[in-house]
Each structure stands twice: as structure tokens, then as C-alpha cells.
Amino acid sequence: MKKSRWIDFGVVCGLFFLAFMFAVLRHDSQIKTMDQAGFALTMPITAVKTRAMLFITALGSPQFLGPVTLVMMLILWWKKQLGSSMWYGAMQFVGYLLVIFFKTSVMRPRPAHRLEKIGGYSFPSGHTFATVIFVLTILALLWPHLKSNWSRLFGCILGACWILLIMYSRVYLHVHYASDVWAGLLLALCWWLVANSQKERFMNWLTEIQK
Predict the structure, then answer these.
(1) Residue 67, preceding peptide bond in cis (omega within 30° of 0)
(2) Which of 49-53, 101-105, 121-125, 141-145 is predicted least confidently?
(3) Closest Cα partner for 117 from 60, 57, 73?
């Protein structure tokens, strides 16, 4: 995808995210319908399913993805890819500041009857955001090594399934509304696509200061 198209698609995702945000702030009836449908799709709630969802949702938590991202950064640094190490680390950790900013700006309460003990605000989903950024990072690092179209397609499908499972688990556990997880996805895509259009410039700048 050309750099200009990255930016264009990222901006579109950002505009859709803002549309979600303003609809949530207005308590739009369409958002309520989406959220009710989201809860309905996760039914029924069972003890076995809840345990499985608690395990799955932990894979998208900052407590899991934060250390894994740090390990990835260390591996890249060890392979003498300092620029990539700094860049992809910043994508996750700086990007998450966006989530905190919007959470504290919108201040949407979490759903009632939560199946996981958690505080904070609901909009957007931080688990979804962090998972999308991490999956895209892994795909970006592996992409040059995936030579066949089938291997690349498989990687994309696997990544998409991981993201969707995290989104599903957040709604099932009643810690997020459906609109929260879709907003988290849109914000992550916006951040990833727009920021990564500047990666080459960052790498050139890093090369210059190292001379």
C-alpha cells in the first residue's frame, strides 16, 4: 500500500472513531442498539465459557502485552535493529496514551454485571487497541520473511482471529460495550496507519543523529 493511501485510510478510521465517540457522548439510540446486539451475540453465559474468556482477555491486557513488547524490543535491539526497536515500542506505549486521553475525556462508565473485576472507564477498549497494535507489529516484522501469498494470508487471518477474540471476550465479560471495542479497533488502525507513514522519516533522522 502506498504511503498516501496509508494516511487516507488511517484518516478515514479516525473519522469513524470520532463519529463513534460523539454518538456515545450524545447517547445515540443507534449506539444503544449496537451495544444491546453485542451483548446478545455473546450469550449464553456459562462457567466454562467465562473461564475461557478470562484467559483469552488476559492475552490482550497491558500486563501481558507490555512485557511481551519489551521482550520484542530487546530482541530487535540485540539484532542491531535499534530503530525498529524504538519505533515499535513507541507505537504501543505512546499509542496507549491516546487511549488514556480518550477514556478520561469521554468518561463512559463500564457496563453493569461485570464478570471481571476492573475499574476505570469504558470508551474506547484499551485491550482491543493494544492487541491491534501488537498484531500489526508482529505482522510487519514477519512480513518480509513470509514469502508466499498463502503464508501471508494465513498470518493475516490468524492475527484477525486474535483481535476478534479479544474484542468478543471484552463484551462477553461485560467490561466493555460493543461500541467500545469497535472504537478501540478504529483508533488503533488510525494510529498505526498514520504514524507508520512517518517511519522512514524517523529512521533517516535516527541515522543522522548516530553519525
Answers:
(1) no
(2) 141-145
(3) 57
pTM (two decimals)? 0.90
Query: Mind listing the pLDDT tens digit for each residue in 13-38?
Result: 999 999 999 999 999 999 999 999 99
Segment 77-105, tens digit of pLDDT = 888 887 788 888 888 888 889 999 999 99
Q: In whole angstroms, what is the distance from residue 109 CA to residue 52 CA?
A: 25
pLDDT score at 207: 62
With CA atoms as reference, report the closest residue to 143 among 157, 153, 134. Answer: 153
Closest C-alpha to 38, from 26, 52, 20: 20
Contact between residue 187 and residue 17 where contact means Cβ atoms under 8 Å apart: yes
Asked if 97 and 191 count as a contact pair (C-beta separation under 8 A), the reply is no
